[in-house]
Write a structure and sequence with these properties.
10 helices, mainly alpha, globular
Length: about 180
């Protein structure tokens, strides 16, 4: 009967679709990931001691977390921990380390949406929030994010310079990618 063939074909199609979904999940396929929220970053945001920096980072994260997939969220969390460790080993502390941590959490927020241009998006998309804080802190946060690609930056002038605070995030990003 035609109906029996149609039903069997439908079952085969359903099984193929199910297998494809399983393969995508196993290989890091983006279609089956859960939506990322700011709450996913609570533990890392809570490590930021300065109330103003934590508040700004949280406000921006509330806007951008949904743009990340699980891979970028996990990467950003790891980079934040590595950056804090590198920064402390280089003598940074207090407010400076808080800004490094905030930048690390936000550095790849726009990577899926904007590709190679993602380092510039925090400055461009969140001027309103950044204007709420000291311009020097806002500038440091933005320059950390913009320089995190190092020599891989499509705009060489944005690459972190050796010996600067921006180099901390660049180094942490590289170390995390190498999964040392």
């Amino acid at each position: 009967s035609t109906q029996g063939v149609s039903s069997a074909a439908s079952d085969v199609y359903k099984r193929q679709f199910q297998l494809l979904q399983e393969m995508l999940n196993e290989t890091g396929g983006k279609t089956m990931t859960k939506e990322i929220t700011c709450a996913e970053f609570k533990e890392e945001l809570d490590t930021i001691k300065d109330d103003i920096v934590r508040d700004i980072a949280t406000k921006i994260m509330e806007r951008v977390a949904g743009k990340m997939d699980e891979e970028i969220a996990t990467h950003s969390k790891r980079v934040a921990k590595i950056a804090a460790s590198i920064g402390a080993s280089r003598g940074y502390q207090g407010l400076a380390l808080d800004v490094v941590t905030a930048a690390a959490l936000l550095h790849d927020a726009y990577k899926n949406e904007k590709g190679e241009l993602h380092p510039m998006c925090i400055r461009l998309e969140h001027r309103d929030i950044l204007s709420e804080i000291d311009p020097g802190i806002a500038e440091t946060l933005c320059s950390l994010v913009e320089g995190h690609e190092g020599f891989n930056s499509i705009i060489p002038k944005l690459a972190a310079k050796e010996g600067t605070i921006e180099q901390i995030l660049c180094d942490a990003n590289t170390v995390e990618k190498l999964e040392l």
